[in-house]
Structure formats: structure tokens, C-alpha cells
Amino acid sequence: MPLILPSNSISAVGYEVDNSLRFDDGSSDRLNRTQSTGNQRTYTFSFWIKRQDLERQNNLISARYSNLNRYAWIYFNNEASPDKDRLHVQSGIYSTSSTTVSMRFTTTRVFRDVSAWYHIVIAVDTTQSTESDRVKIYINGVQETDFTNSTYPSQNDQHFFNINTTPMEIGAFNSSNYFSGYMSEVVLIDGQQLDSTSFGEFDADSGIWKPIDVSGLTFGTNGFYLDFENSGSLGADVSGNGNNFTVNNLTSIDQTTDTPTNNYATLNPLHRGSYLSGLTFSNGNTTIVSSEGGSNYPYTYSTLAVSSGKYYSEFKCTSDPTLAMCGISSGVANTYLGSGSEEYGYFGDNGNVYNSGTNYAFGSSVSANDIVRVAMDLDNNYVYFGINGTWQNSGDPTSGASGTGGFSITATSSLSTGVYHFACGDAGTETPTIQANFGNPPFTISSGNSDANGYGNFEYAVPSGYYALNTKNLAEYG
Question: What is the mean pLDDT of residues 402-430?
């Protein structure tokens, strides 16, 4: 089924988050800084995340003092049930005589929706006399109260966040177990325990939790605010404190416009064709590598799906392009993209379009680093395919009802799911690499083109009337 969260579909004018930072565990991406002395008893973390990899331990924010037995740690676990994909918050006690576990929380809920942005607030004040007031965790504006582990710190315990000379890392712990996914609006408030309303609010019309402007908060000596808006200095602290982070293995291509206020489609590791393995996902679920190389043909779908309107995407085939298949699908799993009646795949080997297992002569073959362009017109029921700057079959995506050079598709009203996803995958005996650009590219763009609403960053011009696949456009057209 399509994974479209209404919590990411706000179209009303309000505070807009411009950028997020895309972390990829395969590249050992992280931010780090050496902390100054702050308040070790009272502090608040607030950050928004969108996950990629559910199979590895993902560290979000960590600090370690002197040795690895002294730590503070916010992470998702990869252990077998019941801890897998639960949020963990832990810390040891800072004292001159001993180190023991002071604080440990594990949520009962799991975080497995790779299409969703989650807002997480960790608010600590160990000076509180009531135990349950010392640590408060909020998810999307609601205080979390159901835990599999809940060890509250003793009164006046000191934690390893905010200790002088202690390394703090974002996206890793001890330069390992890296985070895979997106982060946005990362904030530390040093010296105050704030609730979620300092960082977000429920939309008056929809009831959806959304970010608010946090620039006016008092951040405290060791506090920071990372908005990731400076592509040349992705670790820049804009709180006014100058608590900048060192950037490790992150570049300007990792700065994206996929944010909590405009959620872009990515590829979905939870939603695949009938062959459920054989694909490795990276770059925030915008890149797949097939490891099959045999008779099974794995493919995957965009996280967002549409029932009407016109949408555009680009797929860069960087290796084994002749065995790549790119197109659209209703999301009903089949042997390969194009083997079913509700999907249409452009085959890199011969430029044919496959539908219901039959191939139709259409265009040219695909070479290494070519970009396959896909434009789906669900108002007139055509899909168009291009290679680099040329629409194949003399196609004209703006031709409307005449469908000049397009491939006729089944109307969404007659589909079993009622929607189409963009899709891509393997269709042969080699191991293609495909980079999907739904407007948040994982590859360098040399020209730069957006849709008519100003969304997306594409290599080639977006056809008139077509849009990037994100929740702002879905709210208006989808």
C-alpha cells in the first residue's frame, strides 16, 4: 500500500524548514565537536529525523567521556525483537568515584516508517524532586509514556552531555554505527528542560504536528542550533553561540530540501517486487544496487504514490545500465518491473517498454551515467520516457489528451491499488546501480531545474505542468 502520511501534507503558509542533512552509513558520515562545560543536569535535545536503514544500529546523538564506559547516547537498536527499531536513550553517571547506568529508556513503539519525518524531544532535569519529571520524551508533540525500559536518574545525577572536553557526535557513536537517513532542525538547549511546544505545534486546521521557528530560544552556553542551510559549512551553529561542528564525509550534495515541512519521495526498502532481497539501499534511500545478478529481478517503488496529476522524476544509471528498468507501477508485486499489467518499465538494454510481460519497441538503449526521465500524466493516462535531453519515441509530455509519443497506461480508477508509484530495479543477469531523483538528487546536478512551484532540483527541464513528487505538490495536485 502507498505510504503517504497526512502528517507531512501541510500546504498552508507557515514556518518552512528549508534544508535537511542526508547521512549515509556506508560513507561514515558524521558531525562532531568537543564540548565546553555546560549544565550536566538540565538540558533538552530536539531534532527531526527520517530513517533509511532498519537493519543496523543507528546512532543519532552521542557523547563519551574518557572511555567508552562513560557515555550518553540516543539511538535506534538493530537487535532482535523486542528492541529492534525502538528508540533508546541512555546515560551513565558522571562522578569522580564510579560510573553506573543513570538513565535508560526504551520506547515500546517502533520507528519503521521510512517515508515519515519524526520529531523527537529529550528533555532532562535531574534536579526535579519527582522522579517522572526528570526525563520526558516527546514524539511528534506527544509525551511518550510507554516504555520497555524506564530507569529514571537519581536526583541531581550528572550526565555526559555537556561535559568539558567530551566529544559529541551527531550521526555516530565513537565514529561507528552510523546513522542512515535525514536529520533536520537539530537543537541542544543547555540549562533548560523544555517541552515539545518550544519546537513545534499542532496545525490549527489539520491537527498535524509541524515545526516552528526556534531561533528565538535561549540555547545556553553549550547549546546549538543546526539548520543545515549553509552548504559550504554544514556543521554551522546558527544559535549565536558559535558551537560549530566538524563535518566528516558530508558534502554539499548531502544538503537536501527533503524536510519536515515538505517531504520528498524516496525509494522504499519495505515495498519491493516479488523478489524481496537482492537490493542494497543507500544515500537516504535514493540509490539502489542490485546484488542478484541472476534469474531474480528485484525492484522497488517510491514511498509516495499518486492517483491524479502529472509528476516527473529522473533515474541515473551509473553501472550496468543495460540491465536497469525504470518506470511506474501500481505497487502490486511481480517478477520484474513490467511483468504485470499495472506497471510499465523502460528496459535499458533495448529501449523497449515492458507491460504485462510483453515488450514494445519504444526508444534507445541506456549507457553508463545516462539519465532516464519518466513523466507520468495521470490526467490523460500516458507515461513518457526520455534519455538525457531527448524524449524517446518523439514524445511530448505536454501534448495532453493526444498523448504524442507517450505510452498509454491504465487509469488509476481501474487499478487494484488506485495509485501509481515511480519504480526502478534490476531486469537481468548483471548488477545495476540506479540513483533516483524525485527532486532531492543523490548525484551532482550540473544545470539545475525546478518545477513550476519552485520545488526540486533536476538535471533536465521539468515539462510544463509536471511536478516533483513531494507532499507540498501532493496536497495541491495528487
Answer: 94
**CA–CA distances in Å: residue 455 to residues 166, 306, 337, 452:** 40, 17, 28, 7
DSSP 124-140: EETT-SSGGGSEEEEET
3-class secondary-structure state, position 474: helix
Q: Is the pLDDT of residue 451 over 90?
A: yes
Taking the mean position of all CA atoms in its chain, how far away is CA 343?
A: 25
pTM higher than 0.90 for the full model? yes
pLDDT at 158 exceeding the cut of 80:
yes
Q: Are 5 and 114 in contact (CB under 8 A)?
A: no
- Please give the single-letter amino acid code of residue 286: T
Q: What is the pLDDT of residue 175?
A: 82
CATH number corresponding to 6-256: 2.60.120.200
| Alpha carbon distances (Å) from 144 to 87, 147, 177, 387, 408 | 11, 8, 25, 49, 49
For residue 451, give Cα distances in angstroms to 65, 454, 468.
48, 5, 6
The answer to whether the bond into 441 is cis (omega within 30° of 0) is no
Q: By C-alpha distance, which of 68, 65, 62 is closest to 88?
A: 62
Asked if residues 48 and 117 have their Cβ atoms less than 8 Å apart, the reply is: yes
435: helix, strand or coil: strand
| Residues 310/379, Cβ–Cβ less than 8 Å | yes
Burial class (CB within 10 angstroms; exposed 0-12, middle 13-18, buried 19+) of 252: exposed
Q: Tell me: the pLDDT tens digits for 293-306?
A: 667 789 999 999 99
Domain 267-477 maps to which CATH number in 3.90.550.10, 3.40.190.10, 1.20.1070.10, 2.60.120.920? 2.60.120.920
Q: How sure is the predictor about 166, in pLDDT bands with cuts at 50, 70 and 90? A: confident
All structural domains of the chain with their residue ranges: 6-256, 267-477
